[in-house]
Amino acid sequence: MTAQQRLKQLEKIISYILGRNPAEFGLVPDPDGFVKIKEFLKVVQEENGLKHIRRSSVDEILITVPNPLIEIQGNQIRSTAFESSSVYQESRDVPKILFTCVRRKAYANVIEKGIFPMGFSHVILSSDSDMADKIGRRRDPEPVRLTVQTPKCMDEGIVFYNAGDTLYLAESIPSGCFAGPPLPKKKELPARISDFEEPPRDRIPGSFMLKLKDKTAYGTSSQKTNKSKSGSRETEFKKNKKHKRKRERPPWRQ
Q1: What is the mean pLDDT of each successive set of 10 residues along the chain, which is 254 residues long?
Q2: Which of 40, 106, 137, 189 has the smallest number of Cβ neighbours within 10 A?
Q3: List of residues 6+ apart from 151 with CB closer than 8 A
Q4: Which CATH number among 3.40.50.970, 2.40.30.10, 3.20.170.30, 3.40.50.300 corresponds to the domain 89-179?
Q5: pLDDT for 137
Q6: CB-side exposure of 166: number of CA atoms within 13 Å?
Q7: Which residues of the chain does CATH 1.10.10.970 include?
Q8: Residue-level pLDDT at 154
Q9: Are strands 76-79 and 70-73 parallel, antiparallel or unpaired?
C-alpha cells in the first residue's frame, strides 16, 4: 500500500467516525457536525488499530488528499458527509434509566446542585452503562457513574434529546433525580496538643498559686537588692579610703 492509499483509507475511517455514526464512538457533534479535535483524538486512540492517529495525521490528509472528506475550523473538526438533521431531535421514547459519569472531585457538588454540562452544551447520557463509563474516562481516569431516573426528570420539566442509538442529551439533571455511590468519608484531622490540656482549676479561698513568672520576678528582685547593697558598701569603702588621713612621721624620722 502506497502512502497515498494509506492516507485515503485513513480519511474514510475518520469521515465514518465523524459523519456516519459518531454515537457509535460516544461522540456528540454540534448542530453543524463539529467536535473538538482534542475530543476526537481521545476517541480514535481508544480503538484498536487507530491508536497511531495524531493531529499530524489529519493535517497530512488535508494537505495531500484532493477534496478531502474532512475539514478543520479552529480547534474543531468535522466530516463533510455529516447530516445535521440527525441530532438534537426530542426523544419521545426515553428509557426509564440512563447513565452518565461525573468527575470524582465534582461528585459532592453534583449531589447537592445537580448535573450540569462539562465542556458541552448538554449533559451526555447513555442507555449503555459501558458507553457512559467510556465517555466519562475521557475526563477522569476513575469517574463516578450515576443512574438517572428519567421519569423523575420529566416530572421536573427536563426534556431529553436523541443523539444516536444509545446516546441522549439533556440541559441538566436536577438533584434528587439520580443515584450514585456514597460519598467517601472525610479523613479526621489528628487532635492538637491543646485539646488534651486540663481546664483551669478554681482556686480555694485563702490560697494562692505560685507561677513561674512570679519565681523569676522574685529571684530577679532579690538579685537586684543584693547587688545594690554590695554596690553601696563598695562605694562607702572607697570614700573612706580617700578621706583617710595620712600618718604623720615621728619627729625622730624627720
Answers
A1: 86 91 90 92 88 91 92 93 71 94 95 91 95 94 96 96 92 96 75 59 57 50 52 58 57 58
A2: 189
A3: 96
A4: 3.20.170.30
A5: 94
A6: 17
A7: 3-85
A8: 96
A9: antiparallel
Give the cell for residue 43.
Answer: 476517541
